Amino acid sequence: MNRYLVASSLAIAGASGSAFAQEACSTYVIQRGDSLRELSMSVYGTADYRAIYDANRDVIGRNPNIIQVGDTLQLPCVDSAIASGEEKTEAEKLAAEMAADLVHAAEARAAKAIAEAEGRVAVAEAEARGASSEELAEIRANAKAEIEVARAEGAALIRDADGGERPAIRDRQVLMITGGNYAPFTDEGLPDRGLYTRLVETAFLRAAPEQAYKIQFVNDWNSHLDLLMPTLAFDATFPWSRPNCEEPEALSEGDRNRCETYNFSNPFYEVVDTFFAKDGSGYEEARSYVEFAGTIICRPEGWSLSHLDAVGLYEPAVTLMRPESPDDCFDAVMSGEADIVAVEAHLAVEAIARLGYEHQLIENPNLAAIKSLNVMTHIDNPDGETLLETLNEGLEIMQQSGEWREIISTALRYQMENG
């Protein structure tokens, strides 16, 4: 009988009848059906098993997905488990804490600059009768410049906090950032913190099982691209759509900047980008994008406009509203502030049900587009290309083995059964 078992991220320890009644600062003998993920959940309350793996590398070997029945594992004490799960070195921990403090400070300065600049624009617009269009344009340009200066200052401070050259990617912890409220893809309240989070973690485990990593949730999605990624405080962010970078002349300024500033992984998943409008408005039945001319279209800040640009839905043909969250867009349509929400279908179905707008906000079945969801790294990150190569390799392994499809079907089944 083969004494080795593959403890994949899909393994369920309970299927074997194995019961974890363990505590930290103790030992555990591996039984058939066990997995490090389930053992970590039992002992530490987290699926991140790297504390156990790091304490037992000499026993387990280079691949934490293969553990040997009968081997004895040391279960680290709580403090050491937390430490090993969060940093590779004390210096790295200090740098991360400094970066976090500076991020908050930079965000505060940027927010203040934005508020002050927008206030001046509002005053100028209120007095537009007495101001020339040239004066108003100059005020807006100065406001935009002030905002960019605040962001650049924050980026420079955090880069300086790094304190020197990074160790090789294999010798340090990779830091990735995502956000919540994006069911079924990313949210801390979902199983495995979401479908896309599970795909990224599994890709790491298949292609580079010894690579340490951490995934941080920051729900202000726009800050990922404006502040956190440019500072190189994080190595990667997900999931984001890739604009058609091969035709930059057809892209909005924001999408061109994304193409010029970020590198992209292969697509881990594809989604339907579509439109929602009030029942009875007529927009939910439109068969041509021309019928949207003159409307107010709401799309959250930070979301790509490439699909809208490609079909002529850009200003001044339409008015764009860009709030922070998709929920704000749905509220805006219900209150009459906007006519249409342009958003991803999975997210919309979940949000509409949660907000109580079912049967009031209707998806247009005629006008939609397929877009990919990718991992992005900043072009200034020296480890960015290596990181994307690793993830692409893991994705290919998952697709060839059938694990990718199994993860997808499991997550979507959960979403259907639990709303």
UniProtKB/TrEMBL annotation:
The keyword Signal appears for this protein: yes
Signal peptide limits: 1-21
InterPro entries registered for this protein in UniProt: LysM, LysM_dom_sf
Residue stretches in coiled coil: 107-153
Annotated keywords: Coiled coil, Signal
SUPFAM superfamilies cross-referenced by the UniProt entry: Periplasmic binding protein-like II
Origin: domain of life: Bacteria
LysM domain span: 26-75
Keyword field contains DNA-binding: no
Protein name from the UniProt record: LysM domain/BON superfamily protein
Organism of provenance: Roseovarius albus
